[in-house]
Each structure stands twice: as C-alpha cells, then as structure tokens.
Amino acid sequence: MKNIKEFETCYTAERGWTGAFEEAVAALEREQGGTILVPPGIYETYSIELKSNMTLYLEAGAEIRFLQNWQGYKVVRSEFEGKKEELTMPCIYAHDAENVTLCGYGTLNGQGDYWWENRKNIPQGRPFLVCFERCSHVKVLDVKLVNSPVWTVHPLYCNDVEIRGITIRNPKDSPNTDGINPDGCCNVRITDCLVDVGDDCITLKSGTEDTPVKMPCENIAITNCNMVHGHGGVVIGSEMSGGVRNVVISNCVFQDTDRGIRVKTRRGRGGAMESILISNVIMDRVLCPFVFNMYYRCGMNGGSYKDKFAHEADNSTPSIRNIQIQGCMVTDASAAAGFFYGLPEMPVENVVISDCSIHMKEGAESGYPGMMEDIPAMSREGIYMRNARNVVFRNVRVQNYQNSAGGGEPWNVDESVDYTEQ
Length: 422
Known about the structure:
22-stranded mixed beta sheet, Pectate Lyase C-like, six-stranded parallel beta sheet, mainly beta
C-alpha cells in the first residue's frame, strides 16, 4: 500500500498533486499492483490514470478535486456517444487493464461549474469523471462523486463491472451530467446507489450506426437504487446499434425524474433491445413512468427518421421486444401513464404489464413523454400506444387520468391486444 503523502515531494504549485499521483501509480506498476491510500485532506490534481491490479482508496474526509484548466489535461483517443475522437482524458481513467478498483468513503469532486460554463470552447470536450475503457474486473464502491464535468461513471467495453454503494450528486440543471453509463459492457451489477443528476441517472448504451465496432450491452442488473431529478431513472439508448439485452431493473425508487424507464431509438440505428424485466419500482412525481419510443429525434441524424409511413425493414431497423413490467407503483405522474410508439414496419413487440398501479396528478402541467414533434403535449393521458403488437395487461390500474376526470371510473384492464396502425 502506498500512502499518497509518501510522494508529497512530487507536489508542485503548477501541477498540484498530479506528480504525486503519477509517481504513486508508477511505483505500484513496478510492483505489479497494490493500493494508493488517500488520507483525509484536499488534493488538487489533473487526471489520475490507473493500471492493472490497482486500487485507489479514498479514506473518509479525503477529497480529490480536479483542476479547472482544460489545457492541463492530456488527450486520449476514445469514444463519446458512439463516435471515435480525441477527448480530454477522464479524471479517473484506466484502459486495457484488469482488476481495477476505486473505493472508500471519500469524495471525487469534478468542479464541474468551470466545464459547464466553458463547454463550447474546449476543443476535446469535457472529461468524464470516471471512465474505465476495455477493462475487466472493475469495481467502483462506496465513494461519493460530485459536480462531474460530463458523464459521471462511464464503463466502456468492459466485462465484469460492479458499481455498489456510491453516491452521485450533480446539480439538476447541469448539462449532460449522466450518472452511470455502461456502454458496450457485459456482466454489470449496479446496486445500492443514490444518483441525483442533471441528465439521465443510469443509461445503457451500445454505440450508433457510425460506431466502428459495435458491442452489445448485456447481462445487466440494476437493483436497490434511488434515482432523483434526472431526465430518466433508467434509460436504454438512444445509442443501441450493438443491441441491449438481458436487463433486470428491480427494487428501485425514482423521484422527480422526467421519465421513469425510458427506451429510445430510431430508424437507421439497428440493434435490438430485448429481454428486459422491470419489477418492484416505485416512482413519484414523474412526467411519464414508461416511455418506449422508436422516433427519438435528438442527436446526430435525428431529423431524418420521423415520417410515419412504413419503410422496408432491414439491418438498420431497430427493434424493441420481450419486455415485462410488473409490480410497479406510480404516484403523481403528470403527462401520461405510459407512452409506447413503435415503427409501422417494426412494432414494439411482446410487452407484458402486470400488477401495476399508476395515479395521475391532479392539475398536472402538460409535457412531452416521447419528445416527438408531431405529438402534442399531454396532461394526465392514460396509456398511449401506437405500433405495438402482442401487448398483455394484467391487473393494471390507472387512476385520475384525463378521460376519467369529473367522476369517471378508474381504468382497470386485463386484456391482450395489438395497437398496430393499418
């Protein structure tokens, strides 16, 4: 174990603790691994790049603050939103490594206000707070992560990832500060986390049509987590060209998120989102608890795929299928109880919603569950569904939706039905 203060002689006024962390990593690399212990105190530094068989342990009271000067950061060749490019090195980074751990009860502070204010003037973009790229046996445990410049925890093409007990807090108006974004990863467990951010809380991704090598995001378990404020509690897509499959989301609480579970894609992306189980989730004050949208318009090429006529299905046609939603309780939803909109040539398929209770908020403001240009804003809509096939409702109850206002009966349904446009 190397106490970072053993390397304090490497400290310089210009580089902060950067030299000390670099020397500590080099010393452990010579010893083929070990632990860097960060005791209580404040440590200002540029990026810290870890290697195989290394643990960065932050004791309670330790805070690593990442310096607010983009010119002091190295540049790496990596990916952002499925595009390969030159990027600012993440604040905590490892690539092509194994057995890498970030843990302890201290804090990583990205000091994001500088990056948010200057985001249009930084040539290589803002750094991820934590990124492990092409790594295996990765752990992020217990630490507190605040004020991330952009995405907070970003495993990219990793295998065997455990993220447990961490707290993420970014201001709710901070731009693009997603919480946890596994991209092209397999065998991921995200448990016992609190995520309060300015964008999506947890997002599963697998590249776009322009990603050189598309890797699926698969075998994902998200359990016992609290999500607050984000644009979505758990989101899949819109980068999903490699496919997203075998996902379990259970025993979570979402509060004040724009949407609860949000699945988004569009024509041209390809890939399949399939075998997804959502169970025992409580949502409070969400815009819409369940959104499955195949006309998502944001990002590159978003305006090219919005017409409602059937196209010929091919390898570039995305699919959403084999979804089960069960045992969920929603209070004070505002725009709609659910929004499902497939493609006429590829409907959302094989959806089972069971044992769910959804209560719409009295006097709710209108909003846009799917962010589709030709769908007007909604307020207290029920289940809105277009281009969906083999949909089963079992013991589903929607209360106080718009059509039942003024004394109408709540919506209780047990049926199997298709919602496909001819």
